[in-house]
């Protein structure tokens, strides 16, 4: 199929989900899609992603469409440069299809905190698609695009992938350049991928991966190869961290996990009990580290150089800052800036930020020890429940934060992890999470490819 | 009653790099506003910093030149505050793990002779932009050309005991950094900036008094003036029964007055934390050793060497080493064959006068050596030599001998010509001749002068006097 035709059909599907009120896109146009297609069709060697339409979370900058982070403070903001990931995808032949809705500045777990309205779950509109990359997840789940980029700071791709029944892959920290990803928590942020299948996601991840001289935190190692799916899981030891299977786990999730364990076993892997004792502190640790970094990262949105400016009462510079930021940021973003500012303040730094950094090291150490003890991969549920109802957690930030209880620790440890659809609970998708040692992304994807063959059928049926 | 003054200085110098600290933008001074900018130094969404290796190299060199220990690992930290000239809302600096610590600067104090001031630390950071208040009426504009320019901050111990001593420290510090090629240290272009901390206490009191910080000191003379004013202010406060408040002050060079900027209570909480965009800066011990080995000779060593190797007076050696360029020039003149003290006299005289005006050496060492040998050989007089130097400076290609001939500065030592001038002078001044012959021999100088005048300076005075003595005798 030519890129031009793919662009036309993608446009039709985008128009359809927009008309249906999914609210998953923030900007796209047929003209831009056609321009992308023309570029790809003119390429001498279009590459591994030739003519593949890919949606971008709206916190990844491109020069041809606004990048708003779903925030009023960046309404209409047009970047003068493209993100490294976007440049690499384009040179592999991909077409950027749309900018996807998200929680404002990637802060949230339901995509209800968008300044431009919530994204609906593609299967049950009353429910949330997860977040913060909910728009990207919904577009893949609705069959609009085969793959989409999201971003993870603490599970923002794996959690919505689980809710929407698609594959979500977070690579090792440092594997994909952050240059052009609008920063939230820089030590945690990873551009991550949604795909209909493990292979879709792997191919996109591979095209983006590799050292970038513009990002000092990328590792100077070759790009990731696209791993072939394993025939089975023979010879692998798969660890089941007991802290990730609590007694109060949602029964539908627990049942899907039992079937997944059985499938893993049937594929020849050895299942072993492991413990990650410090993972229970992951959410509070994350909610100190990430807001601290966010408070600094979001200081640049001051109305001085770009974005909307509110003059404020009194007309001095302080008034300008207060009015611009007070009107420009939504309540969840303001809450995290306040938390982040507080935990770094003189007199509180040691009690919060320093302590959280120490805990972060211990959480990472748990994983390292488990892998060193001979475990090849870890298997956990991705989320404690299937997709919840819109409005169910917006009044209680902590209950919202706990939606990320099984994904946060991995982000703090910088490890690769993915969510794979493994079943349904009352019609809602359930995802299982595979976690690999640092920079063993290929091992994880190859194993997921084998598991997918068993679980994909199951995810459809039940 | 006596008071002891305690001063510590924080000096920011711009590292002499072609590009900025964390991006590839140029650091050129004086370009049109907002032309040397990019996503990184504008703080655009998604942009990231990448450290400038040359800036790290220069800062490390500077640290070594100041006797600091350069650490194999240091950490970039974010210093958070809001200001329109700070694009990211934080400055990338270093905080609890700086590049280097623990150095010292030896210098000549005007009060205490030769002393040392400790260097607490040297760290690297990026500069902020500039607010422009006079370009648009009633509005403030922001120029971000300077944003992201690499700086080294050098913090001294509170080891300085007077404003004049602080100035002497700065002169020496500047000299060392220029010698080491770390910075241009030009205060006019803002590549050297000084903040000063001052407190006073009773002599012998081991505890420090409450200090104030004086900012905005734009010349070494103003550092001294401002610190004198601040010392007087604190003395008056304490002697009047008051107390010194910990404040930050701005010095107004025109009025000589201090204005309080903010008190300790309103001071910023910068909420420093390690910058997650930048891994720790790791420097291999071998690399640090290479930087040490590559360090050029510093002013102290050079001064000592000039004294020893050339037998120069201490004063000459100090003057010649005050600027690395002067010292280089002096040594190349000696290398061209000029006797060292003669070379020193020339460099400290005509050469330095023109260097101070133009920062250049219009007469290359070889031509100056040629000029000096013309004097030594008696071809031109000492007086004519100065005129010849000016001519050589104006005409870069002309050889000294050719210029002397063109200008008619070649001395006449031919006995016949000299004799003619002597005869004319004696004939013109019969009265003086009579007085000389009557014993008034001090008139010899008069006759020599008259011969020089009559010859329009061309007569070789060494040949004139014996002729006069002969004819008057």
List keywords for this structure.
heterodimer; A: about 450 residues; alpha/beta; Amidase signature (AS) enzymes; 11-stranded mixed beta sheet; 11 strands; B: about 475 residues; alpha+beta; Arc Repressor Mutant, subunit A; 3 domains; 3-stranded antiparallel beta sheet; elongated
Topology:
The complex is a heterodimer of chains A (about 450) and B (about 475).
Chain A: H1 3-19, E1 25-27, H2 30-42, E2 53-57, H3 84-91, E3 95-100, H4 134-141, E4 147-152, H5 158-164, E5 167-170, E6 190-195, H6 198-208, E7 237-241, H7 251-266, E8 270-274, H8 282-297, H9 317-328, H10 331-344, H11 350-372, E9 377-381, H12 397-401, H13 408-413, E10 417-425, E11 428-435, H14 441-461
Helix pairs in contact in A: 1-2, 8-10, 8-11
Chain B: E1 4-14, H1 39-42, H2 53-65, E2 69-70, E3 73-74, E4 76-80, E5 90-94, E6 100-109, E7 113-126, E8 130-132, E9 141-143, E10 150-156, H3 163-179, E11 192-201, E12 212-217, H4 220-239, E13 247-252, E14 257-263, E15 273-274, E16 281-282, H5 285-294, H6 299-310, H7 314-321, H8 324-335, H9 340-358, H10 365-376, H11 382-394, H12 400-406, H13 415-428, H14 430-437, H15 444-454, H16 461-472
Helix pairs in contact in B: 3-4, 6-7, 7-9, 8-9, 8-10, 10-11, 13-15, 13-16, 15-16
Account of the protein in words:
The complex is a heterodimer of chains A (462) and B (473). With 462 residues, chain A is α/β, with parallel strands linked by helices. Helix content of chain A is 38%, strand content 13%. Chain A is built from 14 helices and 11 strands. In chain A, helix 1 (3-19) packs antiparallel against helix 2 and helix 8 (282-297) crosses helix 11. Chain A starts with a helix and ends with a helix. The model of chain B has no long low-confidence stretch (mean pLDDT 93). By secondary structure, chain B is an alpha+beta fold. The longest helix of chain B has 20 residues, at 220-239. Chain B has 16 helices and 16 strands.
């Amino acid at each position: 199929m030519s890129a031009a035709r793919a662009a036309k059909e993608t446009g039709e599907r985008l128009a359809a989900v927009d008309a249906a009120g999914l609210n998953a896109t923030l900007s796209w146009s047929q003209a831009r899609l056609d321009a992308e297609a023309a570029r790809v069709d003119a390429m001498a060697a279009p590459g591994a992603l030739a003519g593949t339409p890919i949606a971008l979370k709206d916190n990844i900058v491109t020069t041809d469409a606004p990048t708003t982070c779903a925030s009023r403070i960046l309404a209409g903001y047009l970047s003068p440069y493209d993100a490294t990931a976007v440049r690499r995808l384009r040179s592999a032949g991909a077409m950027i299809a749309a900018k996807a809705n998200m929680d404002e500045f990637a802060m949230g777990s339901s995509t209800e905190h968008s300044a431009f309205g919530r994204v609906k779950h593609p299967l049950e509109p009353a429910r949330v698609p997860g977040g913060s990359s909910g728009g990207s997840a919904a577009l893949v789940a609705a069959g609009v695009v085969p793959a989409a980029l999201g971003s993870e700071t603490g599970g923002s791709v794996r959690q919505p992938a689980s809710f929407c029944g698609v594959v979500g892959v977070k690579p090792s920290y440092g594997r994909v350049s952050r240059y052009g990803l609008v920063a939230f928590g820089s030590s945690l942020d990873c551009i991550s991928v949604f795909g209909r299948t493990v292979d879709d996601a792997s191919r996109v991840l591979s095209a983006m991966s590799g050292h970038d001289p513009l990002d000092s935190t990328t590792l100077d190692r070759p790009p990731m190869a696209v791993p072939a799916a394993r025939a089975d899981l023979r010879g692998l030891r798969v660890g089941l961290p007991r802290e990730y299977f609590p007694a109060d786990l949602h029964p539908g999730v627990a049942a899907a996990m039992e079937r997944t364990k059985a499938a893993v076993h049937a594929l020849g892997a050895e299942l072993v009990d492991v413990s990650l004792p410090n993972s229970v502190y992951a959410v509070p640790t994350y909610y100190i580290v990430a807001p601290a970094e966010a408070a600094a990262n979001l200081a640049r949105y001051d109305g001085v150089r770009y974005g909307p400016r509110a003059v404020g009462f009194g007309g001095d510079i302080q008034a300008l800052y207060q009015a611009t930021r007070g009107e420009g940021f939504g309540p969840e973003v303001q809450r995290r800036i306040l938390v982040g500012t507080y935990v770094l303040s003189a007199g509180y730094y040691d009690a919060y930020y320093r302590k959280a950094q120490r805990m972060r090291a211990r959480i990472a150490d748990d994983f390292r020890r488990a892998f060193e003890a001979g475990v090849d991969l870890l298997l956990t549920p991705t989320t404690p429940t299937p997709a919840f109802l819109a409005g169910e957690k917006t009044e209680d930030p902590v209950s919202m934060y706990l939606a990320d209880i099984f994904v946060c620790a991995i982000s703090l440890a910088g490890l690769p992890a993915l969510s794979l659809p493994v079943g349904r609970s009352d019609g809602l998708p359930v995802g299982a999470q595979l976690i690999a040692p640092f920079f063993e992304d290929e091992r994880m994807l190859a194993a997921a490819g084998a598991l997918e063959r068993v679980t994909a059928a199951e995810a459809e049926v039940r | 009653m006596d008071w002891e003054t305690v001063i510590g200085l924080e000096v920011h110098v711009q590292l002499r790099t072609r590009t900025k600290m964390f991006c590839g933008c140029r650091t050129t001074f004086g370009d049109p506003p907002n032309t040397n900018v990019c996503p990184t130094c504008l703080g655009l969404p998604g942009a990231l910093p990448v450290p400038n290796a040359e800036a790290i190299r220069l800062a490390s060199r500077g640290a070594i030149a100041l006797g600091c220990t350069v650490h194999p690992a240091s950490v970039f930290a974010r210093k958070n505050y809001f200001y329109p000239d700070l694009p990211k809302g934080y400055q990338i600096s270093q905080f609890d793990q700086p590049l280097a610590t623990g150095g010292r600067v030896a210098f000549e104090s005007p009060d205490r002779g030769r002393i040392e001031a400790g260097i607490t630390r040297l760290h690297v950071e990026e500069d902020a932009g500039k607010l422009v208040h006079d370009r648009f009426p009633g509005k403030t504009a922001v120029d971000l050309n300077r944003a992201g320019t690499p700086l080294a901050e050098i913090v001294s111990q509170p080891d300085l005991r007077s404003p004049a001593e602080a100035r002497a420290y700065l002169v020496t510090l500047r000299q060392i950094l220029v010698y080491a090629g770390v910075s241009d240290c030009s205060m006019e272009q803002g590549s050297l900036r000084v903040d000063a901390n001052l407190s006073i206490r009773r002599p012998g009191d081991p505890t420090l008094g409450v200090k104030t910080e004086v900012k905005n000191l734009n010349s070494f003379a103003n550092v001294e003036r401002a610190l004198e004013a601040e010392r007087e202010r604190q003395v008056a406060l304490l002697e009047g029964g008051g107390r010194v408040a910990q404040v930050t002050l701005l010095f107004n060079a025109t009025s000589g007055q201090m204005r309080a900027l903010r008190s300790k209570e309103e001071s910023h909480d910068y909420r420093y934390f390690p910058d997650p965009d930048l891994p720790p800066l790791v420097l291999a011990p071998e690399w640090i050793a290479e930087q040490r080995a590559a360090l050029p000779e510093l002013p102290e060593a050079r001064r000592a060497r000039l004294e020893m190797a050339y037998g120069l007076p201490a004063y000459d050696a100090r003057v010649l080493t005050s600027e690395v360029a002067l010292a280089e020039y002096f040594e190349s003149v000696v290398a061209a064959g000029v006797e060292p003290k003669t070379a020193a006299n020339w460099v400290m005289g005509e050469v330095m006068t023109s260097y101070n005006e133009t920062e250049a050496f219009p007469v290359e060492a070889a031509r100056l050596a040629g000029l000096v040998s013309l004097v030594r050989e008696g071809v031109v007089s000492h007086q004519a030599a100065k005129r010849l130097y000016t001519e050589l400076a104006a005409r870069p290609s002309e050889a000294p001998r050719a210029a002397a001939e063109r200008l008619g500065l070649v001395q006449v030592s031919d006995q016949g010509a000299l004799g003619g001038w002597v005869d004319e002078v004696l004939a013109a001044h019969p009265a003086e001749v009579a007085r000389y012959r009557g014993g008034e021999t001090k008139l010899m100088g008069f006759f020599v002068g008259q011969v020089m005048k009559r010859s329009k300076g061309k007569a070789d005075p060494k040949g004139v006097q014996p002729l006069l003595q002969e004819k008057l005798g």
